[in-house]
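Q: For a teaching handout, I want to show students what a protein-ligand complex looks like in token form. Below are the inputs, and the small molecule is flavin-adenine dinucleotide. Please produce the holo structure.
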Amino acid sequence: MSVAPLKKVAVIGSGIMGSAIAYQLQRSGRAQVSVLRPVGRPYPATHCSFGWINSFAKDPQPYYHLSKEGFNAWKRLNEQLNSTLPLKTNGSLLMASKLESAESISNRLQVLREWGTTEFKELSKAELLALDSGLDPSKLDAIQYAVHLLNEGSVDPTTAVHVLLRAAKELGAKVLDAYALRLSLDENNVCNGVFCTRGTGLNDPLTEPSGVDECDTWKETYEAADAVVLAAGLGITELADEAGINLPLKGYTDGEWNRIRGVVAESEPFEKQILPYTVHLMDEPLYFHQFPSGCIKACFDFNGSPVEHMTKTQGMLDTISEYAPQFGELKLRETFIGLRVYPIDGFPVIGEPANTPNLYCAYSNGGITLAPYFAEIATKEILDGTPHDFLSEYRPTRFKGNKRTKK
Ligand SMILES: Cc1cc2nc3c(=O)[nH]c(=O)nc-3n(C[C@H](O)[C@H](O)[C@H](O)COP(=O)(O)OP(=O)(O)OC[C@H]3O[C@@H](n4cnc5c(N)ncnc54)[C@H](O)[C@@H]3O)c2cc1C
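A: Here is the structure, written as tokens, with flavin-adenine dinucleotide included.
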């Protein structure tokens, strides 16, 4: 019996999106994956991310359901990896102390009910106080409305990338120190090579400690792959643009970034696990959770942070200590200022750009939530060539201005 040859796939980028896709492809046993990622390029979004797997506020309905699938896919991924991911799946606690915030939660729950969702539990005051939430009951007295969102969770994104890359390598994938400068496309728009240079050689939090493979491997990457996955996060627009493909990001015009920043605080690790849930205090406002490593991560918002938030990160931790006094005084370990991978229309992008038969792209704001699900879909679509109907509105073909015409 003949065995189908392995499909050679180059994955450009090893943030959460690239590393999840690389792992799933390699795990399929039907692909030989090379991850092209530059050592030392700064500020990949994944490393700065808050790491919340969430769906509650996602609109419209298809995007909400897609995000819910993200949560389920994280659980499946963790099973595949023998529960080695730094993942929590206990849900989120959303709380409001002001009447208008309480009303907005209540209205949103009504919408979710209409969309057929049952994965939440409204908590009475007594239930909230009885919950082992890690929060001080006296601080919860003022809470008017609380809901436990059951299908949400959190993951330590940088460690998750390490786990995924290590697992992909153990299965035979290569992780190469290569910065993709240019895609080479032939007259039929088939990508027959990727021109690369090496990274800067600086330490990179996303690659350590899984490491990159040795050698002149950047030369190897120039050889044709059967398929090329663009998972370059903030680097995607430039790379695609140069090849005449339009994959637009918000805040990127003519090579200039109008930066959409997010500010996240991380504490020194606290040895005991206190917080089982991601907590969202609507009226502070403040979001926080504790990673399995013990560190607490916190942020004020998700819609671009004003500059002054950068000076308030210790303040975020002080507020958490007030709500969860068991932590004592939390010490700031790092402030992350990350740029968002924000598609121009705000919605995820997955699939084949128009008229480019062996290219595939995946990028999204909320990419932590979606990466494992996108990795499952990408693997099926790249290896079997059968498009997944559920994702039709998230295809890159919705962007006009693609200079690649069908031959
Ligand atoms: C502050 C902040 C908080 C966030 N919080 C959340 C959250 O709580 N929940 C959530 O779901 N999402 C959150 N997000 C969004 C989420 O972090 C991103 O959507 C996700 O990390 C994007 O992952 P990525 O792999 O696409 O991109 P990145 O993590 O940026 O990775 C891109 C990779 O491509 C590489 N690369 C770039 N150009 C090239 C090139 N030319 N050649 C080779 N490699 C290249 C980079 O070095 C990097 O390795 C947050 C984002 C920020 C900034």
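A: Two things your students might notice: Residues 7-48+157-255+343-398 form a domain with the FAD/NAD(P)-binding domain fold (CATH 3.50.50.60). The first strand starts at residue 7 and ends at 12.
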